Amino acid sequence: MNNAALVAKGITKYFHDPVTMQVLKGIDMQVSKGEFVSIVGKSGCGKSTLLYVLSTMDTDYEGTLEINGIRTTGLSQNQLARIRNESIGFVFQFHYLLPDFTCLKNVMIPALRLGKLSYKEAEETAYAKLKMFGVEEQALKKAGKLSGGQQQRVAIARALVNDPAIIMGDEPTGNLDSKNTGIVFDLFRQLSQEYKQTIITVTHDNDFAQRSDRIIEMADGEIVRHTGA
Amino acid sequence: MKINVNTEIALTYLSSRKKQTVVAALGVMFGISMFIFMQSLMKGTNDYFEKMSFTNTPHIRLYNENKVADNHMLRAFLPDPSEKILTNPKQLKESQGLTDPYGIITLIRRNREVKNVTPQVTGNVIYTSGSVELPGNVAGVQIEEENEMFDVQGNMVSGNLHDLDRVHNSILIGKGIADKLSLHVGDNITVRSGNGNALVMRVVGIFSTTVKAVDETKSYANISVVQSLMGKDRSYVTEIKVNVNDYNNAPAVAREIEAITGYKAEDWIKANEQLKAGFKIRAVILNSVIGVILLVAGFGIYNILNMTIYEKIKEIAILKAQGFAGRAVTSIFLQQAIMIGVMGGVVGITFGFLLTLMVSRIYIGAGMLKYLPMSFYVPHYVEALCFGILTTIAAGYFPARKAAKVDPVNIIRG
Q1: Which residues form the ABC3 transporter permease C-terminal domain (chain B) (predicted)?
Q2: Which residues in B lie closer than 8 A to residue A81 (C-beta atoms)?
Q3: I want to staple A136 with a disulfide (CB 3.0 to 4.6 A). Which of A131, B91, B191, B301 is the partner?
Q4: What distance in Å separates the CA atoms of residue B192 and residue B353, rounded to the nearest whole number?
Q5: Mind listing the pLDDT tens digit for each residue in B349-395?
Q6: Alpha-carbon distance B197 to B120, whole Å?
């Protein structure tokens, strides 16, 4: 099991509002290091809910979750925050940059929080990440002043700044045109192949899903099919 | 310079919302400057009244208290409590004077706290000039010592108080007496004591204390003159007045003096209960006003931080998703509150000082009071800053804790 980046066993989750409803029905899954996994399914099938459970942000579930061999189920919020900071990078459908900060600062903040790099090193790393996505020229602009595509690329750069073992995306290309989607996909591909970073994304984009290593298809809170593993 | 990432975020939030930051800081500033201003005014006024009260009250007054006859002497002969003793409680016909006053003065002078000691003979008299009679009292004093303790010179309107020692049978009279009897420096006045002795005295000075009741009754004469006017000998002293180095120690010194002399020693606090009551009432008024001001400033900060948190709730969620623990989020918002507090505090202290300075220049001109009495007392400024910052911390704590509890999943998923 040493090769597993993430192991989930019997993940079960209920929504209680407005009526109690089971959204996840005992999901077992395992993702290897360096694997590029897409989770697909119809709206309401529970794929996003699953992703938030896997991300450790949602702790209201039954079952167990292991990330990089560490059992995260039952850890305190502060411990989970530390794990997220260090080993998980997030990309959301909406960029969620902090509009009052420059792009560079936005990317630097998780690195500064982690505290492994000096201010100067964090700045350099952040700049290198921006460069990877071709937005280095926007580095000193306020994040609120960028175009949607640029913002999303800065947001991805931010997810990568701490070199997380796992990158999770909730429709990361949902707001991007096909050109930008292509750029993002190629980068994900490169990260998983060259840097052995694990990528788990939830997507509606079939093209995007088809080109990943494995497709996990969900329906009604259950995994119905693994494709391409 | 290495600053913590939380601090950096707090600073950015503050500087990107300058208007709100300034408004919040102004609230604190106003609270703190009012705190300083009111404290300075109150302390200034209290100090002034204390000082005023010492212009005619000594720190400690030693006198022979009238006692009512009781049966304690008879009990020495009839120790059996079953035997009833009937007494007729009456004022003892005893000398008003102190026994061995100069011995007592020597004893009192040994106390290191004591600064001045002076004997005084007070007598009720009737002033007569022509056909007009006026009741009053004459204080037989050693004028040099009296002047040192009560600044008699400062109240002199005309004449020279030192003439009291130079001119035989001389007297200093209050301005009210001088006006009513139409007397000037150099005129003669007849002073008659209760036992019928009369003495024609020369007015060598007129004083005015701004207290009408004093100016219309009081006069000073040399102690030996009053002793002879009263028909008493040179050892007759009705009270001994004592000033100590620090008047706040007066009660303790008074107790010591009482213990060694056996006479009643009344300190200025007991003699001026109403003054102290006034201080207390003013303190209550002041503290409630300041409390309300700081409370309002605190609510201002609370409100602004709460609004910030609602506005930034997505950003908070994303910070938490990126691994900011609840503690870090609390720290970001608490630091904003503290920064507002410190900014408002520093400006408030400056403004409070300027306000105090300005008001201290306002001319009042009532009685002896020329300008509003304001005190510039450093601990007030320190207190104000501490209270201000404590208020902002208290006001910032609740919104900050709320921010820490933001659930990123709920916010990000909408």
Answers
A1: 288-408
A2: 320, 323-326, 328
A3: A131
A4: 56
A5: 999 999 999 988 888 877 667 788 888 888 889 988 888 888 888 88
A6: 19
Query: Among all residues of chain B, which has the CA nearest to that of A113?
Result: B5
Q: What is the CATH number of domain A33-57+76-228?
A: 3.40.50.300
Side-chain-side CA neighbours of residue A36 (13 Å): 19
Residue A67 distance to chain B (closest CA, Å): 15
ipTM of this predicted structure: 0.86
**Considering CB atoms only, which of A82, A84, A114 is closest to B321?**
A84
Read off the tokens for A189: 């591909």
pLDDT digits (tens, 9 = 90+) for B92-116: 655 667 888 888 888 888 888 888 8
Half-sphere exposure of A91 (CA within 13 A, CB side): 30
Structure tokens at B357: 């300075």
* Joined tokens for residue B75: 């009990």
Amino acid (1-letter code) at residue B231: G
At B259-273, the pLDDT tens digits run 888 788 888 888 878
pTM of the model: 0.73
Who among B318, B319, B326 is closest to A77 (CB)? B326
List of chain A residues whose C-beta atoms are within 8 Å of the C-beta of residue B315:
96, 98
pLDDT of B93: 57
- Looking at residue B98, the DSSP 8-state letter turns out to be P
* Subunit contact A110:B320, Cβ cutoff 8 A: no
Nearest to A59 by CA among A41, A84, A37, A34: A84
- The tokens for A26 are 């005992």
What pLDDT is stored for residue B298 in this prediction?
82
| Interatomic CA distance for residues A137 and A109, integer angstroms | 19
For residue A220 the two structure tokens come to: 């009604």
User: What are residue B207's DSSP bridge partners?
Assistant: B156, B174
Contact in structure between B368 and B155 (CB atoms under 8 Å): no
Q: Which of B273-281's residues contact partners 24+ apart within 8 Å by CB, and which partners?
A: B275/B49, B275/B50, B275/B53, B278/B49, B279/B46, B279/B49
Q: What is the DSSP string of B368-382?
A: TEEE------HHHHH
- Closest chain B residue to A101, measured at CA: B12
pLDDT at residue B226 in the model? 92
Contacts of A85 in chain B (CB under 8 A): 322-324
Q: What is the rounded (10 degree) CA torsion for B197, B200, B204, B206?
A: 70
Cross-chain Cβ contact A101/B327 below 8 Å: no
Q: How far is A207 from chain B (nearest CA, A)?
A: 24
Q: In whole angstroms, give the CA distance from residue B128 to residue A157.
A: 105
Other beta carbons within 10 Å of A44: 12
**Chain A residue with the nearest C-alpha to that of B413:** A48
Which residues have C-beta within 8 Å of that of residue A170, sequence separation ≥ 6? Answer: A48, A51, A52, A90, A91, A92, A93, A201, A202, B412
pLDDT, tens digit (0-9, with 9 covering 90-100), for B124-181: 999 998 888 899 999 999 998 888 888 888 888 898 888 888 888 999 999 999 999 9
Whole-number pLDDT of residue B277: 86
CB contact under 8 A, A48 and B315: no
Q: Say if CB B337 and CB B365 are below 8 A apart.
A: no
Compute chain A's Rg from CA coordinates: 17
